[in-house]
Amino acid sequence: xxxxxxxxxRWAVLGGVVFVLADVAVAVLGGEPPxxxxxxxxxxxxxxxxxxxxxxxxxxxxxxxxxxMWWMGPLWRRMVRTEGGAARLAVVSLLGxxxxxxxxxxxxxxxxxxxxxxxxxxxxxVVFHSLAVLLLAASGFGVAAHLLSTSVLGARTRTLxxxxxVIGVVAALGFLGSAVAGVVTAxxxxxxxxxxxFGLWCVWILAVSVVMWRELGRPGEVDAG
Length: 225
Prior knowledge:
Layout: H1 3-30, H2 40-49, H3 51-82, H4 88-116, H5 118-121, H6 125-157, H7 162-184, H8 189-217
Helix pairs in contact: 1-3, 1-8, 3-4, 4-6, 6-7, 7-8
């Protein structure tokens, strides 16, 4: 890569920071949503009370997803270089993140659609809410694949600090646990585990971003990646 490429990749790394800040804002604005097994009255009240936040959250989360795609660019190139061009784990990481992003955006879109028609769909609002919850839970499988593949490569090649790898693995387990619990049960346990996994993922993204920022800022040999 040329110095201009490295400079461009360095700025792309900031997409991870933007994603974390935007997602935290979405979580704060949206408040605590009802559990997957909540009744129609509780779901409808939540949608009515947080209507503006849900609509704004969809747009904000969409922008956050774009920022994360930019962040994935330098991470992809870093993983491919680390694997010597094989890109086996890099592909898993990219596909996992893509699947997670698509399902998460679909979940947000379903919630926004339910909010826009909450006065017209009556008790069917429960179906929309359950679908949004299940889509979000299923996205955890993709995030887990992304976290595990990136962390395994970082641990095997020692290109990520051990504490960053540990956070990534624990976060992946949290997402897997939340995804399984969200599919098997409809209670709030999955939400708690998922929130913990998401918090650790945010810390992991920031930590990986710092690692990449420092690497790309060092003068070094120009590589062919």
